Amino acid sequence: MVRKTLRGTVFWGMDALKGKTIKQNYNDIKQIMESNTSNLKQLQSICNHAYDTVPFYNPLKSSNFSDLPVVTKNHYKEMYTSFQSQKHLNNVYHQMSTSGSTGTPFTVNQDRAKRERTMAEVIYFNEIEGQTLGQKYMYFKAWPEKKTTIEKLKQNLVPIDILRLDEEALESIRRTLQNDKHINSCLAYASSYEILSNYIYEKGDTPDMYNLKVIFSSSSLLKEETREKLEKIFGCPIIDRYSNQENGILAQTKSNDRVFRVNRASYFIELLKLDSDEPVNPGELGRIVVTDLYNHAMPIIRYDTGDLAISDDLDRHNISTLRSIQGRRIDMVYDAQGNVLTPHTISVHMKRYKKLKQWQFIQEDKTYYILKVNGAEGIYAENDFIDSFKGILGEDARIDVKFVNEIPVLASGKFKNTICNYKVPEKVK
To answer: InterPro entries annotated for this entry (predicted)?
Structure first.
């Protein structure tokens, strides 16, 4: 049973005065997610809306959804006005902008109904893992401006600016989590948890010193060692959430396993081959392509997010689970023979170096790589890394190991473990 809070009661009361629009969305999401109900009717509805009101889709009307083109951020940027619904030009209620830290930035217009749907899905996906609407939580992100005291009280949140996670800031976070027993959960990028867990773990803290009930991690998957440290420190479930600014919550794990449940209530997700727009086979790595079922102001249809994942679902036209999400395509690197390696491959390889504080792997050329390691001096030798990496990159690989004291995060607060600056030559057809 979901525990009610005063703030939650007030929120739902205000929603009732406005026609219960968020509550209706919440109930719809709950019904679809907790049953085998499909949302294919809504998929057809958003496509019909696009055919009728969006210039880009006007000439593309088709009874076969897979005939529609797969689009990227670059398509939206180059033909931005063509993707706007002519029916909603004066109805843009909210704008969501990507940072561009892991790709190309762009802004998505949203109508009020889409915004209400997004709010409802956040409430639902928080609640199923123990974060009730209105409960106090700590939110780590790059805050564009400081929250006022009234805003923090109203939203019942503790904002943490991840652009400043030095020792003083980390100690302040630690003390706040220990002293404020009302903080029920945390939401942060995986890279922020890595820095925080490394700091607190060295202090020897134990779960009885905290009162967290759940930890939500977003952006990229937690490293196994980070997850283990968080569990030992806080003793609560660790939930991986796959979401983006353009759409919302796309998938989330449960406390008892690592499988991502796709948010079928609000999105239709496809996994397509790396070199074509054909569906991948079960167990095969594919590009995540999203159709947002509820944004009528700017329909997002067959949008290549740039992310990669694997699903074991047999029905490739109704994917409901993702076994793993393996980073972004732009973060893939290549061995010295030109074979592709996902960020997950590098992360698994680096698990053996458990005493490192940070690491970053960069491919600069076909056979030239840089490995930055923080916390390795006096523990690991340069040849430890070179010899082990030649095992996966090949003997022709040239690996430059750099011992550093810090590897900074990007301006958005995100951290990239793998970077590929090597431009793969296009194949001659």
So the answer is: ANL_N_sf, CapK_Type1_Caps_Biosynth
Determine contact, residues 341/335, Cβ cutoff 8 Å.
Answer: yes
For the stretch 21-64, pLDDT in tens is: 999 999 999 999 999 788 889 999 999 999 999 999 999 988 88
**What kind of fold does domain 332-420 have according to CATH?**
GMP Synthetase; Chain A, domain 3 (3.30.300)
**pLDDT score recorded for residue 332:** 75
The reported pLDDT for the residue numbered 122 is 96
Q: Are 160 and 142 in contact (CB under 8 A)?
A: no
CATH class of the domain comprising 6-260: alpha beta
pLDDT at 316 (0 to 100): 78
What is the spatial distance between Cα 34 and Cα 94, in angstroms, rounded to a whole number? 29
pLDDT on residue 327: 65
Q: Mapped to the 3 state alphabet, what secondary structure does the chain carry?
A: CCCCCHHHHHHHHHHHHCCCHHHHHHHHHHHHHCCCCCCHHHHHHHHHHHHHHCCCCHHHCCCCHHHCCCECHHHHHHCHHHHCCHHHCCCCCEEEECCCCCCCCCEEEECHHHHHHHHHHHHHHHHCCCCCCCCEEEEEECCCCCCCHHHHHHHCEEEEECCCCCHHHHHHHHHHHHHCCCEEEEEEEHHHHHHHHHHHHCCCCCHHHCCCCEEEEECCCCCHHHHHHHHHHHCCCEEEEEECCCCCEEEECCCCCCCEEECCCCEEEEEECCCCCCECCCCCCEEEEEEECCCCCCCCCCEEEEEEEECCCCCCCCCCEECEEEEEHHHCEECCCCCEECHHHHHHHHCCCCCCCEEEEEECCCCEEEEEEECCCCCCCHHHHHHHHHHHHCCCCEEEEEEECCCCCCCCCCCCCEEECCCCCCCCC
CA distances from 298 to 62, 72, 96, 264, 280 (A): 19, 14, 11, 19, 28
- Which residues of the chain are under the pLDDT cut of 70? 1-3, 99-105, 327-331, 344, 410-414, 426-429
* Token pair for 325: 């999400």
Residue 102 is predicted with a pLDDT of 47
Q: Where are the domains of the chain?
A: 6-260, 332-420
Q: Which amino acid would we find at residue 245?
A: Q
pLDDT at 77: 86
